[in-house]
Automatic annotation (TrEMBL):
<dbReference type="InterPro" id="IPR015422">
    <property type="entry name" value="PyrdxlP-dep_Trfase_small"/>
</dbReference>
<dbReference type="GO" id="GO:0006534">
    <property type="term" value="P:cysteine metabolic process"/>
</dbReference>
<comment type="similarity">
    <text>Belongs to the class-V pyridoxal-phosphate-dependent aminotransferase family. Csd subfamily.</text>
</comment>
<dbReference type="GO" id="GO:0031071">
    <property type="term" value="F:cysteine desulfurase activity"/>
</dbReference>
<feature type="domain" description="Aminotransferase class V">
    <location>
        <begin position="33"/>
        <end position="403"/>
    </location>
</feature>
<keyword id="KW-0663">Pyridoxal phosphate</keyword>
<dbReference type="InterPro" id="IPR015421">
    <property type="entry name" value="PyrdxlP-dep_Trfase_major"/>
</dbReference>
<keyword id="KW-0808">Transferase</keyword>
<dbReference type="InterPro" id="IPR010970">
    <property type="entry name" value="Cys_dSase_SufS"/>
</dbReference>
<dbReference type="Pfam" id="PF00266">
    <property type="entry name" value="Aminotran_5"/>
</dbReference>
<dbReference type="InterPro" id="IPR000192">
    <property type="entry name" value="Aminotrans_V_dom"/>
</dbReference>
<dbReference type="InterPro" id="IPR020578">
    <property type="entry name" value="Aminotrans_V_PyrdxlP_BS"/>
</dbReference>
<comment type="function">
    <text>Catalyzes the removal of elemental sulfur and selenium atoms from L-cysteine, L-cystine, L-selenocysteine, and L-selenocystine to produce L-alanine.</text>
</comment>
<dbReference type="InterPro" id="IPR015424">
    <property type="entry name" value="PyrdxlP-dep_Trfase"/>
</dbReference>
<protein>
    <recommendedName>
        <fullName>Cysteine desulfurase</fullName>
        <ecNumber>2.8.1.7</ecNumber>
    </recommendedName>
</protein>
<dbReference type="GO" id="GO:0030170">
    <property type="term" value="F:pyridoxal phosphate binding"/>
</dbReference>
Amino acid sequence: MTSLDVATATLDVAAVRADFPLLQRRVNGHPLVYLDSAATSQKPQQVLDAVDNYYRLHNANVHRGVHTIGNEATDIFEGARTRVARFIDAPAEGLVLLRNTTEALNLVASSYARELLSPGDRIVLTEMEHHSNLVPWQLAAERAGLELAFLRVNDDGTLDLSGLDELLAPPTKLVSLSHQSNVLGTVVPLRAVIDAAHERDVLVCVDAAQSVPHMPVSVRDLDCDFLAFSGHKMCAPMGAGVLWARPELLQRMPPFLGGGSMILRVSLEKSTWSTVPHKFEAGTPDVGAAAGLAAACDYFDAIGMDRVHAHEQQLTSHLLSLLEEMDGIDVYGPHDMSARGGAVSFNVTDVHAHDVGTILDRQGVAVRAGHHCCQPLMKRLGVAATARASVYLYNTHEEIDALGDALAEVRRIFR
Ligand code: 7TS
């Protein structure tokens, strides 16, 4: 029986785990305990099969429309677009298939902010953004004379929204913020931010890299203007990323990259553009990765994202109580489960996060250590780095306990 046959109220983790070949591995003489899914997730057999099937039977270039195999590849690619759009409850016309969240956010920063905003216009970000949702806006601001302003982070790791009204006033044109922090696990009350922004005719761009993989997300319910995420964090291959944008915005935006597939007509002097969303998909796309992303959407819909989310909440709550009970561990981010998801950052007193990560690895426990591409947030927390454990649908309570045992070993070594 695979996880897809399971229709019980809670997630059958044993069945889920059986779908993931890599989770059967041992590392340094121990069963692998993979707690780094916020960096990238593992892939189930169903996704691996979809990629394999594409390359074995249907591989050809897309949108050329002459031979049978090419048409099959086009159907797979365009089928992935509609499948992914359905997964996030969004019109497919606005769904641009790219490589990752970073590329998607650069597209918005370049083709919307840099090209369509005016000098003096303001973009609001937050202090807890991943560099991917900060650096592209800095580049656009520098080139187009835009101003950047920031929502701050409270001591408890929640977003300080007290200054929101003021920051939404003219000349603000756009807010770009992550739905869930990859460091603190903080889940932002996005709908409230979006409603407040729209009242002022301010657009909202959502970095959903850490939310679409972990909870039900409906673009229609959120009513956001742009939304970006990466397939590789939701059990799909690396190389498939998504930007969803309101089609009318995509129509007004000039292309991001120029080349094949994104044009209507080309002369030596001038070109015109293909329709939306193809205008933003220059060059040969990663069709195999798109096929894998569609399979990942099937996989999650068969399980139910609400069930995935509930499972992660249980694991995170267990992890937080375990860390709180241990001496000499600082946990960053909200402790209230209603304000957070399953990325948990911590430090062991007087031990560098990299040492923590290395000792955990010796016991088969994979966590991330470092600044997590959030240097401004590290500064706000007053630390150089943190260790971070992040859970997913395939993790178990026993694995959280294994992390606890491995951390006790860290404390013993450094006593
Ligand atoms: N935004 C957020 C909130 C992220 O967590 C990440 C990746 C990105 C954007 C960029 O995604 P990419 O697929 O374009 O690279 N976060 C992490 C992490 O926390 N550890 O490794 C990558």
